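2024-03-11 09:14:02 DEBUG pipeline.ingest accepted 1 chain
2024-03-11 09:14:02 DEBUG pipeline.ingest length=242
2024-03-11 09:14:03 DEBUG pipeline.predict start
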Amino acid sequence: MTPMPGYTMPDALPEGEAKVQAVRGMFDAIAPRYDLVNRIMTFRMDVRWRRRTVRTLGLPARATVVDLACGTGDLCRELVAQQLWPIGVDLSFGMLAAARTDAPLVHGDALRLPLPDGCVDGVTCGFALRNFESLPPFFAELARVVCPGGRIALLEVAEPPNRLLRFGHGLYFGKVVPMVGGLLSDPAAYRYLPRSVAYLPESDVMLGQLADAGFVTVDRQLLSVGIAQLITATRRAEPHTS
């Protein structure tokens, strides 16, 4: 597969603006077969994880939910299936062009959303935390756009706590995934994706960052023996003023 113009994924994990540009180009390149590779790599477990992500929001029907890094629209479709109103946002034009959803789609940066303060009831995000430039400003942006009492559900990869499972998962994620992704899509992208787990902070640090940003009832659930994680939280109610 021919990479998009300007797309280079360096051997060392990029930081700052270089990371933003590399990630955007990477997702532009893999968009056409992104869903296919996901289904194969996860044995379709990602479908179940997304369904649980939306259900865990616990929002009433017709609530407005922004799906950040929406990709081809998997979570948007699940939000509709559960009677919610999604808006998809992604930095990659390639992903938006390949999207299979009737939800309104916006080209935008999750760290600088083109949305007013407190305008949505919830936010979902699937497998993108490690691809953002920095997590604290991302969490601050979530706190800005979600209304008091609103909910967020962030789905991401994880490493199993069990040592034997962690070893097996490391072999699969580090060896098999790049091989399968390279055969079906872009080799450089699927060499990067397993390594990008290194961007994720320790779970207690990440949950603390969410609390500092203005969220309460912050929770982390491990899925499928710990190969994925679901982080949920509620936007803290604004203090009453007299």
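2024-03-11 09:14:41 DEBUG pipeline.report The chain has one domain: 16-235.
2024-03-11 09:14:41 DEBUG pipeline.predict end
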